[in-house]
């Protein structure tokens, strides 16, 4: 069992941090929270990894209310994941976002799991799509070091998710209606904090199958 005193202190620190954050925001912009109450009009849907080192708004220095965010292990979009599909549908059809960004990161533990043979059962099930990408990319990965293989597979995984999003029904319907919508693949380097554009952007269904990662 946990030490109740330590647990209480850990949780209480979160509320202290929140108080400090609210005070700083109110000092900088007294109307900030009032404006958030009345509208949510983000132009971006950010699909990222659950990794605690990769926070969406902070990476691009954007305020709350500007980015609609969905995160899971290894930033995957599966056709059976009703959570992710519902997020995309809401973002596209209700919020009318103009950009969907898949943001991976180098050294991703979820992508690393595709190389492992001893993953927990549910993790192994979740990363099955990445194992497929690994199998298809064997020739590209073969001459690389272990670190380079992982980073390259992280890039490939981002491109594959861009392709998957292109075939989500809400996205296809938006394009058919002429709604402005582009999907982009980014990757973040935790070592230096830099965000990189993988140049796998798509804004129409005809280009969906042309998504590639440049070797």
Descriptive overview:
This protein has 215 residues and is α/β, with parallel strands linked by helices. It contains ten helices and five strands; from the N terminus they run H-H-E-H-E-H-E-H-H-H-H-H-H-E-E. Helix 4 packs parallel to helix 10. The longest helix has 25 residues, at 4-28. The chain is globular and about 55 Å long. The model has no long low-confidence stretch (mean pLDDT 91).
The helix-strand sequence is: HHEHEHEHHHHHHEE
Q: Number of helical runs?
A: 10
Which class best fits the helix and strand makeup? alpha/beta
> Which runs of at least 5 residues are low in confidence (pLDDT < 50)?
none
Summarize the biggest pleated sheet: 5 strands, mixed
Percent helix, as a range, is: 40-55%
- Our measurement of the CA-to-CA distance between the termini, rounded to an integer number of angstroms, reads 50 Å
Gross morphology is globular
How many strand segments?
5
For the residues shown, what is the average pLDDT? 91
- Into which percentage range does the β-strand content fall? 5-15%
Strand order in the sheet with the most strands: 2-1-3-4-5
Give Rg in angstroms: 19 Å
Outline the secondary-structure elements.
Elements: H1 4-28, H2 32-38, E1 44-49, H3 56-59, E2 67-72, H4 82-94, E3 99-105, H5 109-112, H6 121-126, H7 128-136, H8 138-141, H9 146-166, H10 169-176, E4 182-189, E5 194-197
Parallel strand pairs: 1-2, 1-3, 3-4
Antiparallel strand pairs: 4-5
């Amino acid at each position: 069992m946990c030490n109740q005193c330590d647990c209480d202190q850990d949780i209480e620190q979160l509320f202290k941090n929140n108080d400090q954050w609210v005070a700083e925001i109110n000092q900088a912009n007294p109307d900030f929270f009032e404006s958030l109450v009345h509208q949510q009009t983000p132009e971006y849907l950010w699909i990222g990894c659950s990794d605690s080192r990769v926070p969406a708004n902070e990476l691009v220095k954007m305020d709350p209310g500007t980015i609609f965010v969905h995160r899971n292990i290894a930033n995957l979009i599966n056709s059976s994941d009703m959570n992710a599909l519902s997020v995309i549908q809401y973002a596209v059809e209700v919020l009318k976002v103009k950009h969907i960004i898949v943001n991976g990161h180098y050294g991703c533990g979820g992508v690393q799991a595709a190389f492992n043979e001893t993953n927990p059962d549910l993790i192994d099930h979740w990363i099955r799509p990445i194992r497929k990408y690994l199998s298809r990319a064997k020739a590209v990965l073969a001459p690389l070091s272990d670190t380079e293989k992982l980073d390259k597979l992280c890039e490939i995984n981002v491109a594959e998710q861009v392709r998957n999003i292109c075939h989500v029904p809400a996205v296809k319907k938006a394009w058919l209606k002429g709604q402005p919508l582009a999907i982009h693949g980014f990757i973040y380097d935790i070592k230096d904090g830099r965000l990189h554009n993988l140049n796998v952007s798509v804004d129409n269904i005809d280009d969906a199958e042309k998504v590639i990662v440049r070797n």
